[in-house]
Amino acid sequence: MREVAFTAICDACVLYPAPLRDLLLRLGGKGLYRAKWTREIDEEWKRNLLCNRKDLTRDQLDRLSKLMEAAIPDALVSGYEYFRESLELPDPDDVHVLAAAIACNAQVIVTFNLRDFPLSVLQGFSVTALHPDEFIMELWRQDRAGVLEAAADMRRSLKRSRFTAVEFVECILRQGLPMTANALRDYTVLI
Whole-model pTM above 0.85? Predict the structure, then answer.
């Protein structure tokens, strides 16, 4: 197991899309970072997914949550409620994410909603909000082989939709990860 450099809270918006969730969890499972989330974050992505995907059931998503917790046993953050009362963000519904980051000493919040986590607020807690593409590229700079290994594992595990390496990179691009897709494109022979 690698020595993990930092802790990151995964916001609900990055756990919502299955391919991005899978990649982030695999990167955490490889020890490239300490992946964290809360029950509240877990409920938020599932609630939104159930609203948009009528073909999915609550039981299916709850089973997926259990698999996520099994893959990253120490991922769930608790005891963050204490911090909520003193925090203000542009979207009050995101306060719980920052509170969780503070509670577990996370250095990063991985989110698409960067405007909801202004630097002026976060820097007081030594936390940075990063777009998932920037976040994965930071992991790439630290451990390219580890990111490639996680991507290769992910592609190999896809049972329902068999992707070629090129199709897999296109899937990553569709997740809103152009830098990551571009980096992986040069290594398709390895994934």
Answer: yes
Closest of 143, 140, 112 to residue 11, by C-alpha: 112
Mean pLDDT across the chain: 94
Alpha carbon distance 178, 169 (integer Å): 9
Query: Among residues 16, 45, 40, which one has the least CA distance to residue 95?
Result: 40
> 149-158: buried (b, 16+ CB within 10 Å) or exposed (e) per residue?
bbbbebbeee
pLDDT digits (tens, 9 = 90+) for 46-92: 999 999 999 999 999 999 999 999 999 999 999 999 999 899 999 99
Nearest CA to 143 out of 50, 57, 16, 26 is that of 26
- Distance (Å, whole) CA 60 – CA 75: 20
Give me the count of residues in the chain. 191
